Amino acid sequence: MTLELAIILPTLNERGNLAPLIERIEKALGAEGWEALIVDDNSEDGTADEARALALSDNRIRVIQRIGRRGLASAAIEGFCATAAPYFAVMDADHQHDPALLAEMLEALKRQEAEICVASRFAEGAKTDGWAEPSREKLSGLANRLARRLTGVELTDPMSGYFMLPTSTARALVPRLSGIGFKILLDVLASADQPMKVREFPLDFAARREGQSKLDRAVAFDFLAGLYDKTLGRVIPTRFALFGTVGALGVVVHMAVLAALLFGLGEGFALAQALAVLTAMSFNFWLNNWLTYRDLRLKGWGAVLRGWLGFCLTCSLGAFANFAVATLLEGQGVFWAAAALAGILIGSVWNYALSSRFVWGRF
Asked: Any idea which architecture 5-231 has in CATH?
């Protein structure tokens, strides 16, 4: 039977979920006409090794193990660019997405009833009883309203992670896709020249079979990054904008520490400025690691400590310029707050360029 459908499964620590999911997919689609493309972000639990072990006895399974690259959106893009199937679906490997919808979605596309099929958590007939996070359900509702304004597509769940479309359509959009974060469907819909014809399928959104969610509290920030990329991202690069946002918060920390040391403890400006720079630098590293570079996030005490030291070292030139300019201006009678802001501005460009390259490994 000719290959018709590729099921792209972005994975991160899903070892125990793979074999049962393949069984469910086979039950839904039959024995032929499909392949499962597992795109693994170098999971620590050996997910890629498990996928390769399954592939040894099942030629419908293929594996892409990514080293130094992370994120569901970029994993999906690599997946549909790597398959010869004329249609592909993206779904989670954690068993929250029901494979039983795959056959019906494929038939709808083949009959040209839609340009893209979406499994919706909020369509009539959908169930979210297995969703143990009511706060995230409310957040998705707000995100959906914002996404509809951006894409021009009326959907109940434009933030769904379970959808299907022709591979040729997605490949044509690749140059416009940002590949940022987790919401690849939003990226696809917003990148199309015209609003796409969509058909929704009510989803029984189940609980995870095992493991922990790949999403975290940074998901709201990640969603905002996607909206920004599709609106202003061509003017100011998205990652730089995120870095700048964190830097602005760092300014608040810097000024608070500086004021506390100057007026609260009576320290001299030079010492107060130096301590404020170090404190703000540490704060910026922590928040950038959690938000701006969350797809490359450093984990574990050893990696975080090395990253913090690397961040401080690579930003030392910017920090030195910050300190030198600020103390020079303050010594010449410039108001202390203005002197500090001038130092921050001079150091910010160096901080972004050097830390992106040497701490997280990407410009």
From this structure: Alpha-Beta Complex (3.90)
**So where are the chain's domains?**
5-231, 238-358
Tokens encoding 251 = 């300014």
Question: What DSSP element (H or E) covers 165?
Answer: strand 163-166
pLDDT class of 70 with cuts at 50, 70, 90? confident
Q: What is the C-alpha to C-alpha distance for residues 71 and 44, in angstroms, rounded to an integer?
A: 15
Kindly report the pTM of this predicted structure.
Answer: 0.72
Residue of 350 and 80 predicted with greater confidence: 80
Which of 60-69, 183-192, 205-214, 272-281 has the least mean pLDDT?
205-214
Other beta carbons less than 10 A from residue 56's beta carbon:
8
Contact 144, 189 (CB under 8 A): no
Cα–Cα dist 230/216, whole Å: 22
User: DSSP character for 59?
Assistant: T
Give the orientation angle of helix 238-259 with respect to helix 269-287, to 10 degrees: 140
Amino acid at 49: D
Identify the bridge partners of residue 87 per DSSP, sorted by sequence position: 5, 166
C-alpha 109/C-alpha 122 separation (Å) is 21
The pLDDT, as a whole number, for residue 363 is 41
Amino acid 30: pLDDT: 94
